[in-house]
Each structure stands twice: as structure tokens, then as C-alpha cells.
Recover the amino acids of this structure.
């Protein structure tokens, strides 16, 4: 337990209530809370988490809390927006998914979600999107001068941003990310990215400097190598983290791509993890979003030497060589090559690469409520991992709305899954073989059935 | 080769020019489950995608052309590739933009599709054939072809296999409308439309966007005009509307590719691809202002709009949310899941909507049995056949209730209705021939052959509520299997309503389930909740999850009254959401069986900050409304 837990809970309660009564004040007070949280993370000790993760937490919290309140300094983006181009103009990118997540930290998401649904938005829409729509409906949300979104990886992006833009009078740039990965698609998207740079030139009055973009991509390339190295090391060393820290890793990698600060942080993490003890517990590869609030998952993974998350696919899904001489084409390749774009096969290739790098003992696939592209592929992932002999746990739940998941059920599935891993480990030890090469044809998969309705 | 498709951006004509027989996939309306689709994808993907999966796997198609229109379709393609490797499964990437670069990219993707189909079917493509396919052959003079082609996919593939296309002289149907984006020209636009409308029942072309591909509109001067918009609507919706004497003035649901092409001799494919991409945009396109212009134009001319969405397809709910705020025409949001089970719900919603816009003209009512009041027949009966209880009210000429009966609905709704009817008459001490008119309402209203008419419970609750308390504007009705909020005006006419989806959460059935878990009777649950001392939150929105949550609370030794109060608050929260959707206007009334549960009543009152008006017998409000309507029929 961190210090000052009680006053913090009281303040969170206050913000949640204020969202319902005084939207203007709710925004202001929420921002104070975010800044306080970032301050605490930067200056107060956390004796349980590894130093690298503690720093990462402060860094990621700051990515959002330092921007909000300065609406002319950032643009709205989705989690896969080309932040590198915004950075060339000194603009930050606040992802609306992140914003939704942060407000859900005050337990305010259900209120916003209900308001969005009452306005006619489909209950089956992604809850991140519904939360932001509800924040707009209730007048809590404050808007920057521009919104930049991509059509990847989620078909709700365009509609949500369009609605936000129209209702709050914010111009929107939609980057249409094609499905096919070939030169024609790359050229088509690269032209849109050039147009985005021109739009930002007009908006900010800052001339665009292509060499700056090339430099950022150079940094990003090195950061990617470090991140990959860190992931590999995390499969070997016990590096204690909170469950939510893995989500922070994803957010930092996506929303801070090209940043020197992130590069240095990863450098530190790579050096630091090498000094950590060997990992004895299970290595888990996490696929898709993480319900940071879920008690059963926190209990299982927070600082746990028994089960360590060694990689989250979303941190690595956009990783590309960035090797084109034309930085716009390099970025276009990155966006089109996103493992969440195109056919599901690409996701399977990424999962294979991550399994190869980490020798993970098991995979957990979290099917977030309303995310059709991830849920829709769950059967293919199950089939694929079954053939590879890697145990899989598929969980149905919700990244931010607690009402769409049942903690007790998740706990049971999770425990059963750990038992499967344990049995497999024992079997491997008995046969003296590598557990990863063992087949689980005897049914090493567990699943949550049905779904919240 | 029989090739299926679902999206209006599929270049069906070009594939037909290669000899393919293109079939728009109409999910089988006898589908009762998505077992295969859910095991090969997931339960939470779009129901239409699931239905398409089942149809393709069980059908006789040689392939399917899908587009990248949404995430569910992307994954449908992945799942089909894995399950049906021998079929031709192609994903056509459709740009969201319609500018020059996008058109060029789209043309390229179309050409790739044609080439890959050519390999699969051993067929070749030629622009000449496409030109002919698009109706270019009968051109009088080379190079100056001006005959346009009206191609309606639905007609094209109707059972009768009519001639594939109908040639129409462009001058006779299309007006020279200005671009919809130019407000200044919109007056000219409307004039053009009005001129055509004067020709009764004549097809009127809608304003053109940038090309000739326009959705068709068809207004009737004699019948109520209702439009259909939103996502893929099944034929059942149209059938229901038409059987209620409604003219379907327009259908711009996302797969309804009714469009007209003007083929070009030179660069036929490029022009065609351009025309396909720039037709009235669907909701996933970047610029949807042509849709807005279209709605601005047609909404003032129609009596109502049915806005259809498919469960787990969220794409169109944004447009609905916009239209709901701005439309001059009443809108019904209708969600279906492409299975046969949704028929009953769909019927109630559509009928209630038509009643509320005064457009209900049921065919079978043409020969009304209801006779005017005579010397002998001076009473009317309202029968409400609900899932839990069947209620009957006998009313006299003076609008006084002379008898009422509430019985449990057994396995057969019809038999229970008959029994309730008989008992009510006995209680009133009158004979059947003294009844001038009987109106049935409620879930089982269609299974009551002896009723003269049936009206939805929505309208009946509106009337009934007004009868008991004319000040009431918002009614909350929670019955056994559904809950609804109804807004009525000063005369008791329904102006808006909202119903729960296909889910038991927030209904009487849910309370029953919980009472069973708590080992108390349903009647004890409400009073128990009032004894609560500790605030417990039931967070789950799903009734199954909520029940497990309750079981966990029991396991944690929480007190029954506290759990009961938590459950009542959860039901009230769901109800409050519905009430907000119709606008929170007082006074409030609660009806239905759950109105007798003091725990829920108190929780709702806490949320609305006002007292609920509850009449002596809240279960007979619907039947009373039916009786009032019967009385109107008889005088």
C-alpha cells in the first residue's frame, strides 16, 4: 500500500461525483488529480516495483498529465496516430483511449458510458470510445485545436473522432490506413502524412523540417531495438512490476515513439534488468488490452515472481525497420504494417515472433468488450497456439468498464490456467525436455464462455 | 460461378461481366443460432457477419467478395479463409476517401480482384464486356452514349430472375439537381423534387452528389411514407412495414446498392470504379456530408424513419445519435441480430412506432369485427397478454372499469387470455354478446384470435397511464421480460419510447432469479430491501454475471436486505437509463408487476428525485389502455 491512500480515495470519489454535478470543475479537479498522481510517482518511493518500471510509470503518467490543461500544446490522437509528425511541431499527442482510461481511474467511466448510450451510441461499442463520447455529452471534455486519427486498428476511430470534431468544433485529420501492404498503399498513405505535415504547418506557423522527422525515426529505430532487448531479458530475469505497468509500457511505446527520453529510459531498463535475479516463475505473453483495474489480475501479477508478463503484443505491433529514405514512406510502412491492420495472419506472425523471443509458457488473450478486430480473431489464435502447443487463456472482459466483466469468473479461469502451466512444467521436468516443445494436444486451453450482455 | 457479396462497394457488375453470378447475401431468416460462427470467431462480433459466415458455410456459393468496411468483416474474411479454403474469398480494400488518389488506388484494387477472380474461374475481363454489362451496348452512336442504366440489385436477383437491368431514360427520372454540398442551390433542388412529387407514385431521384449514383426515393401521396436507414436491414422489416400499409419511401441501408451507372466507352473500368467509390457514402467513409444533405432533403418529406442497426455493429449508431437530436421526422432505433428470435421484438417496436406516428393501417383490420355500441353491447374489453401475467379489464360506456382480472400466464398465451376474458366477464356479470369490442395488447397479443384488434402495449400503457393520471408524461413499465420507458403528451399519445434489448437485466425475471438465489419469495424481496443498512453495489450489467455477483455476496455473508437493496438499485439504474432516453419529464408513473416492489420503487424515486405515481393495480394499466382504445373504436 502506498502512502496517503485514504485521502487519495476520497479525492477520487470527489472527482467522480463532480463529473455528475459540475462538469467544468470536474475537468479542472481531475487534472489536479492526474498531476498529483504523476508528482507522487515521480517523487515518492515504490519499494515493490523494479526501478525501471517505477520510472516508466512516472514517465507515462506525465505524457498525459503534463499535456492536459494546455490545450494548444497537444492534439487528440488514437493510440496509433503518427506522433512523430506532431512532435516535429512541438505538439504532444493525447490519445483519447488514454484519456478515457485516466478518467476511468476515478471510477467515472460508467457514468460517461451510460450518458453516451442514452444519446444513441451503441452499447456494443468499445468502452474507451463510449467513455470519451460521454465526456463530450456531459461537457466534461476539453478539446485541443486538432484531432488526428488513423483508421487502424479500430473501425470506431473515424466515427468517434468525427463526432467529437463536429460537436466540439475541432478539425479532424483522418489518415486512411489501407489494408493491403504494398507500394501503392504506402504511397497513398505517405501522401496523406505529407498533407498532415502541411496542415500542422498552417496550424502552428512552424515550418516543417524533414530532417527532424528523419532524426526522430532514427531514435525510434534504436528505441525499438532496446525494447526488443528488454523484452528478451524480461523473459530471463524477475523484474517486478504492477499489472498496470505493462500497459504503461504499451502506451509509452506508441505515444512517445521517437522520443529521446523514452530511448534513455529503455537504455536504463535494459541495463537495470540485467542485474535482476533469474526468473523462476511462468512467463506470460499478453495479447491485446489490459483491464488495469481487475482485482484478480492485479492479485496474480502485481510484483509476482510466480507469473511474470514478459511481453504485451500491443507494444510491438507497430515495430518496423523504418528503413525508407523518405521518412513519410517509412512512417506509412509502419502504420500499414501494424499487426492489427490487414488480415489476422499478421497478428499470428507477431505472436510467433514474441514467443520465439521469450519462450513464453503461456498466452493470455484479453477480448475487450466491443473490440471486434481482436475478439473476431480469437478462434484463429486458439487454433494457431493449439498447433504450436502453447497454452492459451482467453478472457472476455472490458478494459475500463468493470460492469462488463466478472472478476470471480476471471479469477477461476486464471487459476485453472496457472494449474495447466504448472502441470505442463511438471511434465516437462519429468521428461527432462523443454516445456515449450511439448504439445498440449490434451487440451491445454481455457476460455471464458459467453460474454457480458 | 456463384459469388456472394454484402457491400455496396463491391464491383458486382464487373464480376458479372466476367460471367460470375453475383448474389447479395441475405442471411437466412430461419437462422436460430450462430454456433459455427461463434466458435470460429467470437460471440461479440457483428451479428450480420456471423450470419454471413453461417450462410456461406451452409450455402452453395463458390466464393465471396468482402470489403474492408469494418473490423467484423475483416475477421469474417480471416475466419472464412480458415474454414473454407477451397472457396474464392477475396477482401477488397475500399479507401475511406474518394479523392483522385483514392479512386486510383480503388481502381487498382478492383483490377486485382478481377484478375484474381479470373484465375479462380478461368475467366477474362474486358472493358468492352463491362461496358456492355453496364448497358452500354444499345448506344445509338459511338462515343456519345448518354443512356443511363438503372440497376437495382434487389430486383436483379429477385426470384423471378427478371431481365438483369432496366434501362431508363435519364431525363424522365432524374432532375438536374445541383451539387448537394452547395446550399445556395438547394432551393433549385427542392423545386425539382416537388415537381416530380406532384406526379403521384412516380419514382423521384434524390439530389445528386457528384455522379449519377443516387439512392432512389419513392413517395406516395396516399400512404404514410417511412424510410429505412442505417445498417443492413433484412427483408422482414420491409415486409412488416408493407403489411401495415406503409410506403417505403427510401432504403439507404448499407448494403442496399440501388444505383444507376452511366457507362463510358473510354476507360470504362476507371470510370466505373470511380462511380462505385463515389456513390452515396456509407458511414465508414471519411466525408459523409452527402448523407447529411440527403437526410436534410428527405426527412421533412417522410412520416418517420426506421433506423436499423445490427447487434455489435456500432458504425451507424453515431448517425442515429445525430439524427435523434436534429431530425424533423420521428425516428425509431431498431436493433436486430439477424436471427428469427428477434421477430417478436421487432414487431412490437415497429407497430408501436407506426401507432405513435399515426401510420398504423393494419391490413387485417380492414374487416373490423368491432361493432358500434348498441343497446345490448355496451361494454368493451382490454386484454393484456404479458409474459408473466395476463390482465383483463371490462369497461363501460362511461369509461368506468367494471371489472378487472390478473392471472398468471401459463404455457399458452392464448388459453390464458381466454380464461382471463371469461373470468373478467363473470366478475362483471355480463355475457359475451354485451361486448362491443375487444382489443388485445402485450407480448401475446397476436395469439388471441377472439380479439377484434391488437395494439402494442406501448400505446396502451400511454393511454392507460393518462386515464389514471392525466399529469403523467413519463411512464416506466417493468414487466416480466421487458422494461420500457414511454413518453406521452398531454392527451396520452405516445411521443417516444425506449425498450430494453434482448437481455433479462433490469426486468422482473431478473428479480425472480435473484430472489431464488436469496431463498426468499419475489414478494419479500422489495420489503427486504427497505430494511437495508449497508450500501452494496451490484456492478454487472449482465443478469448472469449479476447473479454470480449476488452469489459471491451471499458467500461473503452479506445480509439479505443489503443484497436485495443492491439488486433493486441495479434494476432502477437500468430503468433510469431508459427513462433518460425518452427525456425526463414529470410527472412519473410506474406500471407493470415490478411497480409493486417497494425496493425498486424507492430506488427509482431516489434517481429521479421525485415520487412515482403508482395506481392501485399497476398490472392493469396496459389492459385499461386497450379497453379505452376499444371504447374509441365503438363510439
Amino acid at each position: 500500500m502506498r502512502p496517503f491512500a485514504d485521502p487519495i480515495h476520497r479525492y477520487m470519489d470527489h472527482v467522480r461525483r463532480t463529473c455528475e454535478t459540475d462538469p467544468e470543475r470536474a475537468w479542472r479537479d481531475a487534472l489536479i488529480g492526474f498531476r498529483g498522481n504523476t508528482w507522487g510517482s515521480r517523487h515518492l518511493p515504490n519499494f515493490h516495483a523494479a526501478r525501471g518500471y517505477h520510472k516508466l510509470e512516472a514517465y507515462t503518467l506525465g505524457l498525459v498529465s503534463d499535456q492536459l490543461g494546455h490545450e494548444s500544446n497537444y492534439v487528440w490522437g488514437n493510440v496509433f496516430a503518427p506522433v512523430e509528425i506532431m512532435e516535429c511541431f512541438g505538439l504532444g499527442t493525447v490519445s483519447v483511449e488514454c484519456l478515457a482510461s485516466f478518467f476511468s481511474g476515478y471510477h467515472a467511466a460508467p457514468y460517461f458510458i451510460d450518458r453516451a448510450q442514452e444519446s444513441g451510441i451503441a452499447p456494443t461499442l468499445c468502452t474507451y470510445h463510449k467513455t470519451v463520447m460521454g465526456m463530450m455529452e456531459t461537457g466534461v471534455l476539453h478539446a485541443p485545436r486538432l484531432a488526428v486519427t488513423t483508421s487502424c486498428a479500430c473501425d470506431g476511430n473515424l466515427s468517434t473522432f468525427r463526432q467529437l470534431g463536429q460537436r466540439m468544433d475541432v478539425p479532424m485529420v483522418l489518415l486512411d490506413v489501407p489494408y493491403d501492404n504494398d507500394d501503392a498503399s504506402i504511397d497513398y498513405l505517405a501522401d496523406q502524412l505529407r498533407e498532415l505535415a502541411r496542415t500542422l504547418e498552417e496550424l502552428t506557423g512552424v515550418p516543417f523540417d524533414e530532417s527532424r522527422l528523419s532524426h526522430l525515426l532514427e531514435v525510434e529505430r534504436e528505441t525499438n531495438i532496446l525494447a526488443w532487448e528488454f523484452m528478451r531479458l524480461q523473459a530471463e530475469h524477475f523484474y517486478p512490476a504492477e499489472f498496470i505497468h505493462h500497459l504503461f509500457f504499451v502506451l509509452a511505446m506508441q505515444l512517445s515513439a521517437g522520443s529521446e527520453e523514452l530511448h534513455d529510459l529503455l537504455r536504463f531498463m535494459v541495463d537495470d534488468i540485467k542485474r535482476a535475479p533469474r526468473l523462476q516463475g511462468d512467463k506470460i505473453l499478453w495479447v491485446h488490452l489490459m483491464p488495469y483495474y481487475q482485482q484478480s489480475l492485479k492479485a496474480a501479477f502485481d510484483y509476482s515472481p510466480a507469473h511474470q508478463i514478459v511481453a504485451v503484443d500491443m507494444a510491438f505491433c507497430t515495430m518496423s525497420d523504418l528503413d525508407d529514405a523518405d521518412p513519410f514512406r517509412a512512417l506509412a510502412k509502419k502504420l500499414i504494417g501494424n499487426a492489427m491492420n490487414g488480415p489476422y495472419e499478421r497478428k499470428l506472425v507477431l505472436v510467433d515472433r514474441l514467443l520465439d523471443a521469450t519462450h513464453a509458457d503461456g498466452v493470455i488473450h484479453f477480448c475487450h468488450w466491443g473490440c471486434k478486430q481482436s475478439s473476431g480473431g480469437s478462434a484463429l489464435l486458439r487454433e494457431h497456439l493449439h498447433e504450436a502447443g502453447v497454452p492459451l487463456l482467453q478472457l472476455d472482459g472490458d478494459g475500463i468498464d468493470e460492469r462488463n466483466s466478472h472478476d470471480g469468473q476471471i479469477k477461476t479461469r486464471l487459476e485453472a490456467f496457472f494449474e495447466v502451466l504448472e502441470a505442463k512444467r511438471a511434465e516437462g521436468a519429468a521428461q527432462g525436455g523443454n516445456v515449450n516443445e511439448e504439445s498440449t494436444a490434451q487440451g491445454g486451453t481455457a476460455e471464458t464462455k459467453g460474454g457480458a450482455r | 460461378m456463384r459469388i456472394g457479396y454484402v457491400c455496396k462497394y463491391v464491383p458486382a457488375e464487373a464480376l458479372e461481366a466476367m460471367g460470375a453470378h453475383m448474389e447479395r447475401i441475405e442471411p437466412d431468416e430461419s437462422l436460430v443460432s450462430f454456433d459455427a460462427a461463434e466458435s470460429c470467431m467470437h460471440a461479440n462480433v457483428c451479428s450480420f457477419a456471423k450470419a454471413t459466415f453461417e450462410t456461406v458455410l451452409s450455402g452453395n456459393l463458390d466464393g465471396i467478395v468482402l470489403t474492408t468496411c469494418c473490423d467484423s468483416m475483416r475477421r469474417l474474411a480471416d475466419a472464412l479463409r480458415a474454414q473454407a479454403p477451397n472457396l474464392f474469398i477475396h477482401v477488397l480494400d475500399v479507401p475511406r476517401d474518394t479523392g483522385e488518389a483514392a479512386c486510383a488506388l480503388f481502381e487498382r484494387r478492383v483490377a486485382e480482384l478481377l484478375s484474381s477472380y479470373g484465375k479462380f474461374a478461368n475467366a477474362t475481363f474486358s472493358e468492352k464486356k463491362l461496358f456492355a454489362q453496364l448497358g452500354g451496348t444499345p448506344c445509338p452512336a459511338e462515343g456519345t452514349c448518354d443512356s443511363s442504366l438503372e440497376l437495382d440489385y434487389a430486383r436483379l436477383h429477385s426470384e423471378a430472375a427478371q431481365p438483369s437491368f432496366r434501362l431508363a431514360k435519364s431525363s424522365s427520372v432524374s432532375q438536374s439537381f445541383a451539387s448537394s454540398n452547395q446550399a445556395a442551390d438547394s432551393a433549385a433542388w427542392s423545386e425539382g423534387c416537388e415537381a416530380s412529387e406532384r406526379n403521384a407514385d412516380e419514382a423521384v431521384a434524390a439530389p445528386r452528389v457528384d455522379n449519377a449514383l443516387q439512392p432512389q426515393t419513392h413517395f406516395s401521396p396516399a400512404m404514410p411514407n417511412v424510410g429505412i436507414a442505417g445498417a443492413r436491414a433484412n427483408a422482414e422489416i420491409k415486409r412488416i412495414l408493407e403489411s401495415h400499409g406503409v410506403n417505403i419511401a427510401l432504403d439507404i441501408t448499407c448494403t442496399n446498392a440501388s444505383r444507376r451507372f452511366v457507362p463510358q466507352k473510354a476507360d470504362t473500368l476507371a470510370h466505373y470504379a470511380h462511380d462505385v467509390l463515389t456513390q452515396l457514402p456509407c458511414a465508414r467513409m471519411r466525408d459523409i456530408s452527402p448523407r447529411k444533405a440527403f437526410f436534410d432533403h428527405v426527412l421533412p418529406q417522410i412520416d418517420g424513419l426506421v433506423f436499423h442497426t445490427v447487434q455489435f455493429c456500432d458504425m451507424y449508431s453515431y448517425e442515429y445519435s445525430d439524427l435523434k437530436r436534429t431530425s424533423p421526422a420521428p425516428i425509431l432505433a431498431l436493433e436486430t441480430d439477424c436471427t428469427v428470435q428477434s421477430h417478436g421484438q421487432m414487431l412490437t417496436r415497429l407497430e408501436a412506432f407506426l401507432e405513435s406516428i399515426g401510420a398504423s393501417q393494419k391490413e387485417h383490420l380492414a374487416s373490423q369485427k368491432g361493432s358500434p355500441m348498441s343497446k345490448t353491447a355496451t361494454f368493451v374489453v382490454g386484454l393484456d397478454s404479458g409474459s408473466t401475467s395476463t390482465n383483463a379489464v371490462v369497461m363501460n360506456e362511461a369509461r368506468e372499469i367494471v371489472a378487472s382480472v390478473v392471472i398468471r400466464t401459463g404455457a399458452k398465451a392464448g388459453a390464458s387470455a381466454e380464461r382471463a376474458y371469461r373470468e373478467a366477464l363473470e366478475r362483471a356479470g355480463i355475457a359475451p354478446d354485451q361486448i362491443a369490442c375487444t382489443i388485445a395488447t402485450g407480448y401475446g397479443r397476436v395469439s388471441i384470435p377472439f380479439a377484434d384488434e391488437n395494439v402494442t402495449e406501448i400505446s396502451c400503457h400511454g393511454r392507460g397511464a393518462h386515464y389514471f393520471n392525466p399529469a403523467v408524461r413519463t411512464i416506466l413499465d417493468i414487466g416480466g421480460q421487458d422494461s420500457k420507458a414511454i413518453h406521452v403528451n398531454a392527451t396520452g399519445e405516445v411521443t417516444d419510447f425506449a425498450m430494453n434489448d434482448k437481455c433479462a437485466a433490469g426486468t422482473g425475471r431478473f428479480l425472480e432469479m435473484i430472489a431464488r438465489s436469496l431463498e426468499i419469495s419475489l414478494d419479500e424481496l422489495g420489503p427486504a430491501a427497505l430494511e437495508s443498512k449497508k450500501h452494496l453495489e451490484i456492478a454487472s450489467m449482465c443478469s448472469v454475471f449479476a447473479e454470480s455477483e449476488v452469489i459471491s455476496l451471499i458467500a461473503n455473508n452479506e445480509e439479505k436486505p443489503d443484497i436485495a437493496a443492491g439488486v433493486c438499485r441495479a434494476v432502477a439504474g437500468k430503468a433510469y437509463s431508459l427513462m433518460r432516453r425518452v427525456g425526463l419529464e414529470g410527472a412519473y408513473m410506474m406500471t407493470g408487476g415490478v411497480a409493486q416492489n417497494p425496493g425498486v420503487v424507492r430506488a427509482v424515486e431516489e434517481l429521479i428525485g421525485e415520487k412515482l405515481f403508482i395506481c392501485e393495480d399497476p398490472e392493469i394499466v396496459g389492459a385499461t389502455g386497450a379497453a379505452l382504445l376499444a371504447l374509441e373504436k365503438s363510439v
